[in-house]
Structures are given as structure tokens and as C-alpha cells.
Amino acid sequence: MRVVDAAKPTFARHETFHPRYGWFRKAYSFVAADPHVFSREDAAVRIGVGKNMVRAIRFWGLAAKLIAVDQRSSNRRTPGLAPTRWGHALFGESGWDRYMEDPGTLWLLHWLLLAPPSLLPVWWLAFNGFHAVEFDDDDLVGAITAQIEAIGDWKAPHPSSVRKDVSAMLRTYAPAERSGRSGIEDVLDCPLRELNLIGRSIGTNRYRFALGAKPTLPPAVLAYAALDYIARTPTGANTVALGRLAHEPGAPGKVFKLTEGEILAALEPLAGEAGALTLTTSAGAVHLSWSGDPTETADGILDRYYGCSLSDIRMDRAAHDDARSPSAVSTVGR
Q1: pTM listed for this prediction
Q2: Strand partners of residue 279
């Protein structure tokens, strides 16, 4: 998969804010209550944050595919937003994980941020096309800028936009710098840091992607990502080599930083479960097989993991009440 197929040429739309605790859920809840909430003049008052942060919350809701522009809106000049099936599935009243208590939800959101159509091409290139063992901000900015400049179909973004996207990504995934002024909110202000996907070298204090097994990554979420990737790159087959899932740009191995062996070890517990997935060896290569449509199989795996059927989840009045509650306003900026 190429970045032009996986992402849109959008840069630095987050107002320099990385996603914070509560923002994913709040983006869904406020849009469920009012499709035009983010475009209203008093949006900052309604949501309880500054104007730049309003735009940032909107962006992260769109980037995580929890909300989307409603193409059916009667106002074509200023179309409203609508919750997506992912917004309903995760944060609706009957949703899988309304308060993001399950580690699998963080891994799923990480996958959704990079899955096509991604609004974060700089992040996509960092995870899928950057191979340095250790690096700093300048290394990453330089490598990604060169890759973007080689894309003939895209207009090169301003250098500061690439740097802002790199900065937001590192603040999202890398450990916070500890200082005398750092408090608990500085260290824990982004949920995706819990994934430990980017760390720091003990010797040099430079960044490095954390390669290796991910203890908090549920096999079900990895299986979903594998089948979702296959569904987005259709071949007509119902089997795929694990090597492809490990090494192809955009595949789970790149996005979750896993080797072929680690993918195998994680998927083995699911193999044969309810007949959804099987692992076979042919000509020395391990293959993952499934029956039926890969998207339906993937949804079924998440249904069993969360214990609730995606097809039965709906948004109801509780989402509206949640968005208007005092606690929603007081915590949305955290």
C-alpha cells in the first residue's frame, strides 16, 4: 500500500494539540447531540474549551473515524457532522467501551487513525516508511519531507506543517519529558502513550520505535486489523501469508511494530475459534485463512471480544444527555 492510497494530503490540522483523554469520546458525544456544534459561534462555550481546542477536538474525532462530514446534510455550504458506526460502536449508550477502560480500545483507535483514508499522512509515513533505529525530531522531519516531495500527485506542504505533525505524533506516543514542573496531567495527558509504541534509548535519550511483542494488544484487535487490511487491499482470496501482514506498508506488522513470529504467536489463540480463522503452513510459510467476507469476519471477532454485537449498537438519547452534562463540559479539555 502506498501513502497516496492510504492517506489524504492533509497536514497540521490539529492546531498543534495532540489527542487528550476524553477527546475521542467527546467528539462523538457532542456531534451526536448537535451535528453543527463545532461550527457554531458559541462552540467554545458549549464545549468548554478555547477556540483552537474546539478545532482540535473536531479534527481528532474525524481522524479516528468516530465522526464524519454528513454528505446528506441539507446545508451544502456548511454540512453538519454525523457519528460513524465506529463512534456508535465504541461510545454509544450500548457501545463497547464508553469510558475507554479496555486496552484493546486504544489499540483499535491507533489502527483507525492510520487506516485508510487517514488524515495523518506524516504519521502513516513515520510508522510505515521510516526505518531508522534511533532518531530525533529533525531526523524524522527530514526523512518524511523527502518521501512527500517524491509524491508527484501531492503539493508539498509547508515545512512547518510537517514539523508540527511530527511533534504531535511524538507527544501522542512517546514518553513525556520529566521535569521539575511536570505533573500527572503532563505525563498522562494522552491515552495512546499507554501503547508504548515509541520509547527513548537509555544511552542516548533519542526516540526509537518499540519493536517486539505487545502484551496489551488483544489478539482479537490484531485479527481485526489484519482482516481490515486485507479488505482494503482485495485480492479475491481467503488466505494471506503472515509475511505480508508483517512487512507490507499499512499492514498490522508496521502499524503495531510486530514481526511475523509475533503476529503468529498473537493469532494462534484465535485460530479455529468458532471457525473464524485458521493458521496453516504451506511451502514453509504460515498463512492466515478465513471464510466469507473478511469485513464481516473481522466485525464478528470484535463482537465476541467486547461481548456486544456491532449490528445491535445504536445511538440514543443518552448520547445527547451525555454531551450536555456538566461533567462532559468540565472534562473535555483534559
Answers
A1: 0.89
A2: 288
